[in-house]
Amino acid sequence: KKRTSISTLHKMKQKGEKFATLTAYDASFAQLFDEQGVAMLLIGDSLGNVVQGLDDTLGVTTDDIAYHTRCVRRATQGALIVADLPFMSYATPQQACENAAMLMRAGAQMVKLEGGEWVCDTIRTLVERSVPVCAHIGLMPQSVHVMGGYKVQGKSEEDAARILRDAKAVEAAGAQLLVIECVSKKVAKAVTEALSIPVIGIGAGPDTDGQVLVMHDMFGISAGHTPKFSKNFLIETGNMQDAVARYVSDVAEGRFPAAEHSFD
Ligand code: KIV
Ligand code: NA
After folding, report:
1. 212 lines ligand 1 (CB under 6 A)
2. pLDDT tens across 154-205, in order?
3. Distance of CA 9 from the midpoint of ligand 2 (Å)
4. What's the CA gap between 181 and 107, in Å, rounded?
């Protein structure tokens, strides 16, 4: 089986084919997701919340992400493997290179980092040194204490315009993929249409090229609170394999996210 590559996702965007992605942290779930055709698996720093029982993602280290990346990589054959650079692991381009190298050696094919215009130097440095980058804008959980909570982003005209500027800036800096979290469907649609790289949404409405969910949220078993934009796919299917298959086909066919999972 051939692994999904970044060019696979770019072609899907060009053809208008929507794709489903999930977070994964361990071999058993990663294998299940891989078998159900999940295009990309993200070893997210959400592991702080759903695996480590922390209140936020700030306690997660690059070593933690590397460990879980190895677990996921070994158990999969088809999915593109993306690993989060955690809080303060990319404060300088130099640190970003060292920590990204650790994640790539652990089996990641791409790293993800949070930020817009201000991380562009870091994105350029990583890409020039052969590390593919996924940027993450909108709600950025590593900035929760700056934002004063987890809130929908881009509500004013000014903030919406800044998000669009950030999206264009990270693409121009060389990011090959973009995650946009917790913004209105209007903002996400504008960003998706403005960029030629694939845009993956979470709490960002139905118009992005791909979707991502934290795996525990889609099974309805998160230790903390389950966000409005998520859906428990286990209720209507009754087993994990079918829940994941349903998520994948609901995204591909445009049934998820529905209006009740989106922000206006
Ligand atoms: O850490 C994570 O799980 C993420 C996704 C929600 C995009 O960054
Ligand atoms: Na993350």
Report:
1. yes
2. 999 999 999 999 999 999 999 999 999 999 999 999 999 999 999 999 999 9
3. 20
4. 25
